[in-house]
Structure formats: structure tokens, C-alpha cells
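Handout, page 2. Input:
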Amino acid sequence: MNTSFFGELLQTISDRGRALLARADRRGDASARSESLVELCEDLLSGRGEASGVALAREILGRYAELTTGPRIAFFEALAKRFGTDPAAMEKAIAAWQAKPSDETAAELHAASEPRRQELFRRFNLAPGGTAALVRMREQLMDVLTHRDDLRAVDDDFVHLFTSWFNRGFLVLRHIDWSTPALVLEKIIRYEAVHEIHDWEDLRRRINPPDRRCYAFFHPALNDEPLIFVEVALTREIPAAIAPILATERERVETEKMRTAVFYSISNCQRGLAGVSFGNFLIKQVVEEVRRELPKLSNFVTLSPVTSFASWLKRERTAEASSAVSEADKLVLAALDAPGWWRDAPTAERLKEPMMRAAAYYYVRAKNGRGVPLDAVARFHLGNGARLERINWLADTSDKAMKQAHGFMVNYQYDLDDIEKNHEVFAESRTVVVSSAVQRYLRPSLELVPIAG
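Output:
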């Protein structure tokens, strides 16, 4: 109700401001409204009253939405070139700081160093639906970043502002169940990015039974648009495969026998908010929610997919010298080239040990240029304080999983007593905390912190 009230109030202010702008146009005041989108942006930054400023922001966003690809890129170029930091203001602020260092001159230097487009984005956000429009604008900017590095600074400013606007304090956790409005449920189906939800009945199986849960974060400015959601299975044991969790016909787990909460799918919903982290807060809050409801739960684990193990292994198999795959293992791994190899039991059994060795190396020792694990899912969970608990062979034999990961999935365990310690170890030294079940597939290394069990 409050969100609706303030939305209507903002709309009224905007409509009144548009009327003021229209009257100014009829008086022939050329400075009141410009036909150029970039000049309108300059107008907005020049300082207007509340009503006309809101209306102008709405007008700019409306015109932007009508741009085709070429003009849109030109607009991004203008944001990069014309709305960056003011060099004259920076020089003046630096000189003032050097002449008299103080909190006041430091504040002036900080203000002068901020690109003008950050304030422009803040003023865009005054318009009704401004936040959603800016998230869409960033999505469109991301589409061109792969070949336009010169626009990277504009993207950095979006991330900087979104990180503040979508701060955890503004997020609302909602339990998604069968009574959730259909509009939201449709978006859960559409945004599911890990294990496709095929239809409404499939969705019901994931959110309606007593041993299934789904939680999502929402932001007041985006109404019924989920930002991120997690699907949870309540089980007896830590699962080693996804099929039993997603099965159409399965045995329901009675409440008194539930001991494990399994986070088997985490989906980010708003591409324009990439780089703004919600998942760590989501998992920790969901843990608290389910523990409050089911105090007998003792295990909190993931059943996580992998996206790039197969491509990494292909490179290692063809490398002249690989520290990850021995020459003997390369000979056995040649069987991976046979279509449907996993359907032949003797072949799969022969491949298991060398594949487990390669997978353990990938998850623990394969690092990128920044010294962190290659696997993005590993970076996320290890950074949140989880430990690498178990690597599961042929845990997902769907076409997608076989292509990307040769069927591997991973359990990361959130041990509530060790989360902070594990997080600090990973943050400070990039050390991967592993269980003994994973460690046995690796040669001794200082990179490992073994955990018994």
C-alpha cells in the first residue's frame, strides 16, 4: 500500500512537472526543453525544481527507450565522454587540498572526482519506474561492452550506484509458495537458470510439498520482480545427484526425518544487476529461516553445477605437458570422445578414477590470473565460507550438464561453526578448504586445508 501511494505521488509530481515544461515551451523558452537527448541530460544536471526535474527525467528515459541500437551506443559514448569527471573542478580541488589538507577540502576533492554521470543517473532515478529503467539501460550497455572497452567506466558507475541502491538493508526476503501471485510464479519459471522448470506442474513440485522450499529477494523499487531466488530440498542425507531431487515421482521426506537443507538451484533474475552480490546474503538468511522452522536440521549444503570443466579438461588433455592430467590418464580419458560414453557401464567405471582426479584438480588448484579458482560457483561459495565437501560423479546426465561438466556436480557445505573462519582463510590466502573425501584425489599441496570427515 505504501509503495503504491508513493508511486502515485511521484507520478502526480511528474505529470505536474510535464505541464510546467509544456507551458515553458509554449512561451518559447528554448532553454526549458531541448530536442537533443544529451542536451536534455545537461538540462537535468543544471538544476531544476522538483516537479520539472522529475518530469524531465521521465522524458529522457522515455526518449531513450525509443532509441535503436546505433543511437543508443552514441548515447553511451556521450555518457563516457561528456559526463565524466570535470578536469577543471578536479584541478581546483586538488590545489585546495594541497594548500590546506582538511576534512573540508578532502570532501571537496571527493565530490570533484565523481563523474557527472553518477549524479545524472541519480536524477534519472527520480522518474516513476526510474530504477527499473536504469537496470534495463545497464543490460543494453553490457551487450556492447565486449567490443567497446571505452564504455567500461560507464558500467563501473552503474555498478557503484546499484551496489548502494540494492544494499541488503533494502532487500525483502519472501517465501515463494503456491499462494504467491501468479505474476511472480511466472517469473520464477522464466528466470530459472540452473534446472529448467518445464511447466506449472513442475513448479508445483518444487515449491508446494512440505520438503521443498523456495525463497527470493525483492526490492521495493522493482515491485514484483525477483532479484535472485534459491530452491531448497529438505532431505535426510547429503545428495549425490540431481535426478532424485527433480523426480516427478519421489518419496516425500517426513518432517521429523529432515536433517539436511540442500540449495540445489540459485538463479539471478536481473542481468542488469550483474556484479551486485545478493547470493551470500540470501543463503545465510535462508539458513536462518529454515533453522527457525526446523531446528533439527544439521547439514546445510549445495548441489552445485559446473559450467566450464569440460572445456578446461579438453585443453589439459591436448596440452603437451599438463600438471593436472598425467599421460596415463590422458590415454584413458580418450574414451570421453565417444558419443554417449556414460551409458556404457564398463567405460564409465574405467573413466571414474582419472576423471575424479582431474575434477579435484580443477576445483581446488586451477586458478585464474587473480589467483582464485577458475570455477565461478567455487569462488562464490568458498568466498561465503563454505568448504568443498564432495565431488559427485555423473550427478547430472542431462545434455547440458554432460556438455559443460561431463556430468559432475559438487557439494559445498556451510558448517555454521566454521563459516567465518573459512571465509577469512579464503579471502586472505585464496586457500581452498576441502574435506578428506576430496583431498584423497590430490597430491599433497600447501594450497589445501583438509577438514576431517
